[in-house]
């Protein structure tokens, strides 16, 4: 099975509501999208093409290369269909693989049972052909096989990513309630920040938004921080393709980029964590860190984007302390951030009402399972027309 050079159906998954930003990234890399849907996109490319995608995409989760679509009503039929695939041409007989799945079939009470049937079909086939069986287990840091099975429709994939692409590898110390890197990157893309003007991130927590902004501004891609993907563990992998793509990532870094990126937090511990994470990401020198109340954050006069990711409190019922904080954020943006586009990311609509500014856009996101909004505020300086020119 020459999957590395054979174009086939590929599904790139992402978290809900990140699909528009994933589509933008995929198109910018020069790939044609066959189909887009709320949690991903479909392409027709080879496994070698997925290497480029794995290394470059900021908003994706997994990149799945389709091996076979088939009908299966029960575990026995699933096993028989999978046993017909030449697994001995994909997985080393002395190798290791794991299985993940998305299953909705009335004969399956737990996805783990479906995973076992997939594992058994692969192991039995390879043992029959090679006389030895590969090892398997829960770790997804080697070859990963993914099963999609809904009703009687099943599809088996090579998961070319393995560990999720949504984590970008620099956050060794996550901090309190951190925003997932793919979500942070998506909110910055949604803000249409130009990568040149100022980017101000008060209440920065573990620094994810400021770090993602610095990575975007300098065109540093997630693949620079990762040296292990599932595609490396399938038969046919040519490491020269990977290293060629990785060299391109290094060559594409914009070392001249020097936007003013400011990250502040009232917690000295949070700022120390942010600095360590930024150092791991290779962008510490691009970010000015400040320990202060958000209202004392330095805001450059030239204009740009200011983005808050405050606490949301409980979904139902708000805390008086947070109500005051949200009102202060609105006052701060109105008084100190003229000429900026302001953004507040929140999962609490009741608290959002306390901001006291009219949102020009309400961009839908999820943070985990929580329904959230990125609220946009145009903080005009002088006349409306004058400020418009700043962003044309």
TrEMBL record:
SUPFAM superfamilies: S-adenosyl-L-methionine-dependent methyltransferases
Molecular function GO terms recorded: RNA binding; rRNA (guanine-N2-)-methyltransferase activity; rRNA (guanine-N7-)-methyltransferase activity
Gene3D superfamilies: 3.30.2130.30, Vaccinia Virus protein VP39
Keyword list, A-Z: Methyltransferase, RNA-binding, Transferase
Recorded superkingdom: Bacteria
Coiled-coil region(s): none
Protein name: RNA methyltransferase
CDD domains, sorted: THUMP_AdoMetMT
InterPro entries: RlmKL-like_Mtase, RlmL_1st, SAM-dependent_MTases_sf, THUMP_dom
């Amino acid at each position: 099975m020459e999957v590395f050079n054979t174009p086939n159906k590929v599904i790139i998954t992402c978290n809900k509501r990140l699909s528009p930003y994933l589509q933008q990234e995929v198109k910018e890399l020069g790939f044609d999208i066959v189909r887009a849907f709320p949690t991903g996109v479909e392409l027709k490319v080879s496994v070698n093409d997925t290497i480029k995608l794995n290394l470059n995409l900021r908003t994706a989760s997994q990149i799945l290369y389709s091996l076979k679509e088939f009908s299966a009503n029960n575990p026995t039929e699933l096993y028989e269909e999978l046993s017909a695939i030449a697994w001995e041409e994909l997985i080393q007989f002395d190798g290791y693989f794991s299985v993940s799945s998305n299953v909705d079939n009335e004969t399956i009470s737990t996805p783990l049972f479906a995973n076992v049937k997939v594992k058994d079909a692969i192991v039995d086939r390879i043992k029959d052909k090679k006389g030895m069986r590969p090892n398997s287990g829960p770790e997804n840091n080697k070859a990963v096989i993914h099963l999609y099975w809904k009703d009687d429709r099943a599809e088996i994939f090579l998961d070319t990513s393995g560990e999720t692409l949504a984590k970008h590898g620099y956050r060794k110390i996550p901090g309190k309630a951190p925003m997932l890197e793919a979500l942070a990157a998506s909110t910055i893309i949604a803000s249409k920040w130009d990568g040149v003007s100022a980017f101000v991130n008060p209440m920065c927590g573990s620094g994810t938004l400021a770090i993602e902004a610095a990575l975007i501004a300098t065109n540093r891609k997630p693949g620079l921080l990762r040296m292990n993907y599932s595609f490396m563990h399938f038969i046919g992998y040519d490491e020269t393709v990977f290293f060629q793509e990785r060299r391109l990532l290094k060559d594409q870094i914009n070392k001249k980029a020097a936007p003013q990126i400011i990250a502040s937090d009232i917690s000295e511990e949070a700022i120390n964590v942010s600095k360590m994470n930024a150092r791991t990401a290779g962008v510490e020198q691009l970010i000015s860190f400040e320990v202060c109340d958000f209202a004392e954050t330095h805001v450059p006069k030239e204009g740009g984007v200011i983005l808050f990711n405050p606490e949301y409190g409980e979904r139902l019922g708000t805390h008086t302390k947070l109500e005051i904080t949200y009102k202060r954020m609105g006052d701060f943006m109105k008084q100190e951030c003229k000429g900026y586009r302001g953004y507040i990311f929140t999962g609490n609509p009741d608290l959002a009402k306390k901001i006291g500014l009219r949102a020009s856009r309400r961009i839908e996101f999820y943070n985990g399972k929580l329904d959230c909004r990125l609220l946009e505020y145009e903080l005009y300086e002088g006349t409306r027309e004058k400020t418009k020119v700043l962003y044309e």
